[in-house]
Amino acid sequence: MINNLQDTVILNNGVKMPGFGLGVYKVEDGDTVVHSVKTAIKHGYRSIDTASFYDNERGVGQGIRESGVSREELFITSKVWNDQQGYDSTLQAFEQSLEKLGLDYLDLYLIHWPVSGKYHETWKALEKLYQDGQVRAIGVSNFHVHHLKSLIENSSVTPVIDQVEYHPHLTQEKLKDFCTRENIQLEAWSPLKRGRLLNEPVITEIAQKYQKSAAQVILRWDVQNDVVTIPKSIHEHRINENADIFDFSLTGEEMLRISELNLNDRSGSNPDDF
Ligand code: NDP
User: Fold this and answer.
1) CB 239 within 8 A of CB 43
2) I want to staple 11 with a disulfide (CB 3.0 to 4.6 A). Which of 68, 87, 160, 239 is the partner?
3) Whole-prediction pTM
4) φ and ψ at 17, to 5 degrees?
5) Per-residue pLDDT tens for 224-264?
6) Which of 37, 217, 233, 237 to mutate to test the pocket of ligand 1 (most atoms within 8 A of CB)?
7) Is 202 inside any structural domain?
8) Residue 166 maps to which CATH number?
């Protein structure tokens, strides 16, 4: 379990990744994303999660350059979007992301969604980028167990990460167990269910006990579950608040009460039907 904002998890290829980061989905390119990235890094964040689909890689790159923190201290993730999947088009998509970000390598590159009939070829392109040293680790996003199994059976590199929707209303127990067995790190997207969990009575009750916010309790639950988490905010006070979760611990009983809120309820698409 990580013990501070810059603590890392060790991925299955030995690369270290911060266990906590900033997500920038739906953050407008330009000043807004530049400000979010710089603010997060100023407050100690070292991991930024973007994607070509978010259309803000240029601003993310600018924020990184203006942060004053060296590239090697940062961990930058991007993803290949669905309409660019396939071998050659993925290689091109990667080059475009690098160019927009203004970087010469990525720390992590993910297949954004398991596009049927395409994702095996896409993975071959990611393996090539990894072997060529253009990316330090490769992984997937929105893969169910059956997608992961199929990929593992048909390729030489096991994904380091599966980034999926994960929060107290969608606890993904089977996927989590499978990832633990296969040494694939689980990473939570929409950890706050985009704000829709913040009035959940069990969570607000626990939050009151620790004098913390509901968001902090949920993100602490991620950390104690050994799930990498990347909450998004464009507001400095929330960027700061979300990361201020290393001075309290949830009891085993509280962890369980939060996990029992599971409804298998998604805010996004089901990876079998998107
Ligand atoms: P989150 O669960 O992180 O919620 C973000 C929302 O919650 C925003 O509206 C934000 O508002 C608000 N918020 C953040 N912190 C607080 C707080 N402390 N108190 C109250 N409200 C708060 O949703 P996301 O969907 O953005 O998920 C996080 C990241 O995961 C994304 O940004 C992206 O990087 C990644 N992702 C990946 C996907 C994939 O398919 N691989 C899909 C979706 C997301 P405000 O900004 O105004 O503060």
Assistant:
1) yes
2) 160
3) 0.98
4) -125, 135
5) 999 999 999 999 999 999 999 999 999 999 999 999 999 99
6) 233
7) no
8) 3.20.20.100
